[in-house]
């Protein structure tokens, strides 16, 4: 019996009694450590939150929709609360004013990234987005990526009538997409748009970086897209080693999948960078790196070599932009189509606005954006209602500080609940209703800026998304080009399910029952 109740360890047999003693010692140590809680300066409040279990903390309560549970908890414990995930304390921020106070007013203090085990495995620990570095070298690299993005997007287009490269590439890709949808409709009578949109959005980034475009059936690209989706699923279930550090030394299936996915993703990017190195705009990057090296020397930062141009550096930049850019924009477009087929009356209003403002003679341009108020309001409502990035990427504090009277220690991991802000009853009337008109002035003649600025989707402050403008432009141009020519619906008897499935980016259930009707063909010259 004793033999049956024992485990075989690498050193031999461990009895159940030994396991029980070890657990008791662990729990006792845990309680003793807790009783020596950090002293906080006089006059400041101690962070509070739900009580957790030893070792696992509040993990069980968070369940499969942590953004909803943390929103509920914030109603009890307030905008600044502390939970425990595994053995790691986590500060959870809610409420737009509190989040602005932290990420904007105290930007330098809340700009860090926590030292999570998973983050070490992304981009070899050199990722702009996930590495723990937030000093001068990180600043220089962020600037480099921002400048690269700017060059690839807003530079004038040399060989087309478009106003800039981004407009040229998105218009072209959206046109391919229209033709592909029409072909699928003819051949199969129904289709899943996600599978094609993801290739089009990826093509925009590839075109901007290397002038490469993939066919909609390219197996290499599709397998990379599947990898990225798997990655999202693994990341959504959370990596226990991030929150119970001792687990990183034990073999784990989740961690193996995570590492494999990262390796494959890196080698995919490495391969396209190698193939297209000659067409990469290295001169521009070299100018930027030179000025950054000067900047680092001025600031007396030790590691200017870290930002010197190399193949690996280009791979890293592309990796950062690629990884962050294609999944978010595709997800935004995919949610947009789901809302359009769920609310056909809203789709009709967008069609009417496009007909009146642009008509049939030419394609939509970025410069149409200020005139297409209802479309703009629809996109804002899609971001708010779906809140498909429920949290920002985790932050961490760079020094001790005070927020809303609470003492916040250095190196505390911080979750920012964007979903809570976008569904806060104090900020929004009927937050669960999908209503683009909430963003229009009473006369419908302008977008209400104060309302639109309350939507939180790109983070705030020093770590705010560097692709925000590009992301918004891409969503606008893809949608208007598709909707100018097509009307979307789902097959009779089918319904689009808009229940979000929790993840790093929350997706809806894939829908294979999309149908389209061609409205009219736009003259080619536009
Ligand atoms: C609809 C589209 C997009 C959404 C909703 C979005 C949202 C976000 C969010 C929430 C963050 C985290 C902010 C934080 O940690 O506080 C982020 C970071 C980032 N995004 Fe985006 N993003 C989008 C598109 C893009 C695009 C198109 C690019 C580049 C091509 C991009 C590049 C980045 C990068 C590099 C970071 C990391 C910044 C840093 O850590 O300093 N994003 N984004």
TrEMBL record:
<dbReference type="InterPro" id="IPR036396">
    <property type="entry name" value="Cyt_P450_sf"/>
</dbReference>
<dbReference type="GO" id="GO:0005789">
    <property type="term" value="C:endoplasmic reticulum membrane"/>
</dbReference>
<comment type="similarity">
    <text>Belongs to the cytochrome P450 family.</text>
</comment>
<dbReference type="InterPro" id="IPR008066">
    <property type="entry name" value="Cyt_P450_E_grp-I_CYP1"/>
</dbReference>
<keyword id="KW-0479">Metal-binding</keyword>
<dbReference type="InterPro" id="IPR017972">
    <property type="entry name" value="Cyt_P450_CS"/>
</dbReference>
<keyword id="KW-0492">Microsome</keyword>
<feature type="binding site" description="axial binding residue">
    <location>
        <position position="465"/>
    </location>
    <ligand>
        <name>heme</name>
    </ligand>
</feature>
<dbReference type="Pfam" id="PF00067">
    <property type="entry name" value="p450"/>
</dbReference>
<dbReference type="GO" id="GO:0005506">
    <property type="term" value="F:iron ion binding"/>
</dbReference>
<protein>
    <recommendedName>
        <fullName>Cytochrome P450 1A</fullName>
        <ecNumber>1.14.14.1</ecNumber>
    </recommendedName>
</protein>
<keyword id="KW-0812">Transmembrane</keyword>
<dbReference type="InterPro" id="IPR001128">
    <property type="entry name" value="Cyt_P450"/>
</dbReference>
<dbReference type="GO" id="GO:0004508">
    <property type="term" value="F:steroid 17-alpha-monooxygenase activity"/>
</dbReference>
<dbReference type="GO" id="GO:0006805">
    <property type="term" value="P:xenobiotic metabolic process"/>
</dbReference>
<dbReference type="GO" id="GO:0042446">
    <property type="term" value="P:hormone biosynthetic process"/>
</dbReference>
<keyword id="KW-1133">Transmembrane helix</keyword>
<comment type="function">
    <text>Cytochromes P450 are a group of heme-thiolate monooxygenases. They oxidize a variety of structurally unrelated compounds, including steroids, fatty acids, and xenobiotics.</text>
</comment>
<dbReference type="GO" id="GO:0046677">
    <property type="term" value="P:response to antibiotic"/>
</dbReference>
<dbReference type="GO" id="GO:0042448">
    <property type="term" value="P:progesterone metabolic process"/>
</dbReference>
<keyword id="KW-0349">Heme</keyword>
<feature type="transmembrane region" description="Helical">
    <location>
        <begin position="12"/>
        <end position="36"/>
    </location>
</feature>
<dbReference type="GO" id="GO:0020037">
    <property type="term" value="F:heme binding"/>
</dbReference>
<keyword id="KW-0472">Membrane</keyword>
<keyword id="KW-0408">Iron</keyword>
<keyword id="KW-0256">Endoplasmic reticulum</keyword>
<dbReference type="InterPro" id="IPR002401">
    <property type="entry name" value="Cyt_P450_E_grp-I"/>
</dbReference>
<keyword id="KW-0503">Monooxygenase</keyword>
<dbReference type="GO" id="GO:0019825">
    <property type="term" value="F:oxygen binding"/>
</dbReference>
<keyword id="KW-0560">Oxidoreductase</keyword>
